[in-house]
Design brief:
The structure holds two protein chains of two kinds.
Chain A: E1 4-8, H1 12-24, E2 28-32, H2 35-44, E3 49-53, H3 61-70, E4 79-83, H4 91-98, E5 102-105, H5 110-121, H6 142-148
Parallel strand pairs in A: 1-2, 1-3, 3-4, 4-5
Helix pairs in contact in A: 1-5, 2-3
Chain B: H1 20-24, H2 31-34, H3 51-83, H4 87-127, H5 133-142, H6 151-198, E1 203-206, E2 212-215, H7 217-222, H8 235-238, H9 242-254, E3 260-267, E4 273-284, E5 296-305, H10 307-343, H11 349-381, E6 388-392, H12 393-410, E7 414-418, E8 425-429, H13 430-446, E9 453-461, E10 464-471, H14 478-483, H15 504-515, E11 519-524, E12 530-537, H16 539-543
Parallel strand pairs in B: 7-9
Antiparallel strand pairs in B: 1-2, 1-5, 3-4, 4-5, 6-8, 9-10, 10-12, 11-12
The chains are: A alpha/beta, B alpha+beta.
Chain lengths: 149, 544
């Protein structure tokens, strides 16, 4: 069964890279440019995992985590946070305080992200079903996000 | 009685002058009374033989001689004839006795003469200035004839007086020098007290028993100490700041010549926090370390307000954090796409091309960030050489317009020019002012949606030259208008519109205001476009 992931980052290039890697691995990926948009996607269809950046406009990563934890329907969702503010946040404190499944420090490796996602979700789809190009990815895509903004 | 070796006064003569002892030594006179006339003092009564003394001595001598003669005569007339002694012997005794009487009388006269010499000597001593004892003794000695039995004694006395006089002069000089030094020290002490009292920095000193010996007004104000009798109290009780007290005691105990420093936070009674840099040092009696208790004089501490330094450190830390964060974004993109490039299908040329394009744009972004950072840092540090000259604003703005035209055309944004027909001249560094114009025009184009417009205007206004860039873009909220000139600040909701480093406007502000003495302002309404205005002094105004 295809696992669904919501990706959230205001940096288009990083969003593209993560989306490409996860889509290539067989995951169904939906993208959001900020926390509010990510929450709307989560409400629209409950994902299996959320990957979010910390510093974003409108609603940042911690705000999104708080909403996820406060809602009984989403409380169990595993969240991976990507951030460049590594030195100011202790990994243990962040995971305990915000219930993060993993805190990844930028610059991160897409391979490592995929490995972490697979560890949390216990395996992707077979490789033959995976799209190979960004334009073949599911919606909403990064391209759609750019148009909407 | 004046008793001198070899010239002892015959005791039986006292019968002829019973008051002699009092006359010779009138009731142990006060030496001050015997001194020569000192300024303002009454002359002392000189020592001398009184006429009564002389008469009594002469009469005494004469009586002695007559007595001898009478006795001799009586012996010769009355006793010797019946004694059976020969007549010649009897007649020899009389004259012999008479001669003895004469000798006795002569001896008496010698005694009187000696005493007169002694009196003259001591009288001369007493008449002169006792401070000049050497000269006084010499002068007194000069009153004695060289054959006088008093002469050796007077000689020795004069020598001793001279030595005493020299020592007295030395003592006097030392006393005068000490007095001068004491006065100088008193003046210095008053100066030091005044300096300490007026020092803006709090200063506290303790002695070797950790008791307060000095606390200036600034320290009293800082620690809100109104008690006057704080000097002498143990430092741990005297001031409410334990850290400063501990620093003082530690410095005193260590006795090392090097100073100890610490940052101390003090929260006053109103809850306001203040940061101080405390410098404590031990005091010793000499230059050697005061580890020895005997040489330790205590310790002192001076507190320096480091609020500005702390703020600067905080800003620097925030700046470094912001810079590193901003740099990580393009770096993340580069690293991620290099990995994707490595993992993608080699035959997928479209994907490879896309990835390489992203890597290139992210690298350019990083380059721009570093360039802007360097520019700002160098301009702020004054390292960049500023070359100001009188330039035509019209020409410069026209050139900037043409530089940004391609990016405006790409978004189908109308680029309008309403430059003043007047010749507007500014004294400016051409490259820097061009950077400002390009930054403002680029921003306007970035944050204006497609088919919007950006207008460039210039004018002369109140002895200032102005140019402004007005756009029909997304505008700025009140909060964003205040922060938009801060380093790395980018309006959150508009970040998706365009890439930027957040350094363009801070750089423009620094160039206009700090380098050229102008002003840069913004008028904007969220959703209603913005007008960025630059005002610079006109060349005529600068010359006048």
């Amino acid at each position: 069964m295809t696992k669904h992931i919501v990706l959230c980052d205001d940096e288009i290039a990083i969003l593209r890279a993560a989306e490409y890697k996860l889509t290539a691995a067989g995951f169904d990926v939906r993208c959001a440019g900020n926390g509010e948009d990510a929450w709307r996607e989560i409400e629209r269809r409950l994902p299996d995992l959320v990957v979010t950046d910390l510093q974003m406009p409108q609603l940042d990563g911690f705000g999104l985590c708080r909403r996820i934890r406060e809602n009984p329907l989403t409380r169990h969702l595993p969240v991976i946070m990507l951030t460049a503010k590594g030195c100011e946040l202790s990994a243990a404190e962040s995971t305990e305080k915000y219930g993060l499944a993993k805190l990844m420090i930028k610059p991160f490796s897409p391979r490592e992200l995929l490995r972490t996602v697979e560890q949390i979700l216990n395996g992707p789809l077979p490789a033959s079903d995976a799209p190979t190009r960004l334009k073949d990815c599911g919606s909403p895509t990064v391209a759609q996000l750019t148009t909407d903004n | 009685m004046l008793v001198l070796r070899g010239v002892a006064q015959p005791g039986w003569l006292r019968f002829f002058s019973p008051d002699r002892t009092q006359r010779w030594h009138p009731a142990r006179p006060d030496p001050l009374e015997l001194s020569s006339p000192m300024p303002g003092s009454s002359p002392a009564r000189p020592l001398s033989l009184q006429p009564a003394d002389i008469r009594s001595k002469l009469l005494g001598g004469l009586a002695a001689a007559l007595s001898f003669a009478c006795l001799g005569l009586w012996l010769a007339v009355m006793v010797l004839p019946v004694s059976g002694l020969p007549a010649a012997t009897a007649w020899a005794i009389g004259p012999g006795m008479a001669l003895a009487g004469v000798c006795a009388w002569r001896w008496n006269r010698c005694l009187i003469q000696n005493q007169r010499q002694a009196i003259r000597f001591f009288d001369e001593l007493s008449r002169r200035d006792p401070h000049d004892a050497g000269v006084t003794a010499d002068a007194a000695r000069a009153t004695l004839p060289s054959g006088s039995p008093w002469y050796p004694i007077a000689n020795r006395f004069a020598e001793r007086c001279r030595l005493l006089a020299e020592r007295g002069q030395d003592v006097e000089q030392s006393r005068a020098a000490l007095e001068i030094r004491l006065r100088r020290n008193a003046v210095r002490q008053r100066q030091t007290d005044a300096i300490l009292a007026n020092l803006g920095e709090p200063v506290i000193a303790i002695n070797s028993f950790d008791e307060v010996v000095l606390i200036n007004d600034a320290a009293r104000r800082l620690f809100e100490i109104s008690e006057e009798s704080i000097v002498g109290q143990p430092i741990v009780r005297a001031i409410p700041c334990e850290k400063v007290a501990a620093l003082l005691i530690d410095a005193r105990r260590r006795g090392a010549p090097a100073q100890r420093t610490a940052e101390v936070e003090w929260i006053d009674s109103t809850g306001v926090s203040k940061w101080f840099g405390a410098m404590a040092r031990s005091l010793s009696a000499d230059d050697r370390p005061a580890a020895d208790e005997q040489r330790s004089l205590g310790a002192f501490v001076a507190l320096r307000d480091i609020a500005e330094i702390k703020t600067g450190q905080k800003r620097y830390a925030e700046f470094v954090s912001a810079v590193s964060h901003e740099m990580k974004s393009p770096l993340t993109g580069i690293k991620a796409y290099v990995e994707l490039l490595a993992d993608c299908d080699p035959s997928d040329s479209a994907a490879r091309e896309e990835f390489l394009g992203v890597i290139d744009s992210q690298a350019n972004r990083l380059q721009r960030l570093i360039d802007n950072l360097l520019n700002i840092a160098r301009i702020e540090a004054g390292v960049v050489e500023v070359s100001k000259q009188s330039i035509s604003l019209h020409e410069l703005l026209g050139e900037a317009l043409e530089i940004v035209r391609p990016s405006a055309d790409a978004k189908r944004i109308r680029l309008l020019s309403e430059l003043s027909p007047m010749y507007l001249s500014v004294l400016a560094d051409r490259d820097m002012l061009m950077q400002v114009a390009i930054n403002l025009l680029s921003n306007a184009i970035k944050y204006t949606p497609e088919q919007g417009s950006v207008t460039l205007r210039s004018r002369m206004a109140d002895e200032e030259v102005e140019f402004e860039i007005a756009d029909t873009g997304v505008g700025l909220s009140a909060e964003d208008r205040v922060k938009v000139f801060e380093k790395f600040y980018r309006v959150k909701k508009d970040r998706g519109m365009a890439q930027g480093t957040g350094l363009g406007l801070p750089l423009a502000k620094h160039i206009v205001e700090d380098v050229h003495g102008g002003r840069i302002t913004v008028e904007s309404v969220a959703g209603g476009g913005s007008v960025f205005r630059v005002s610079l002094p006109a060349v005529a105004q600068l010359v006048s």
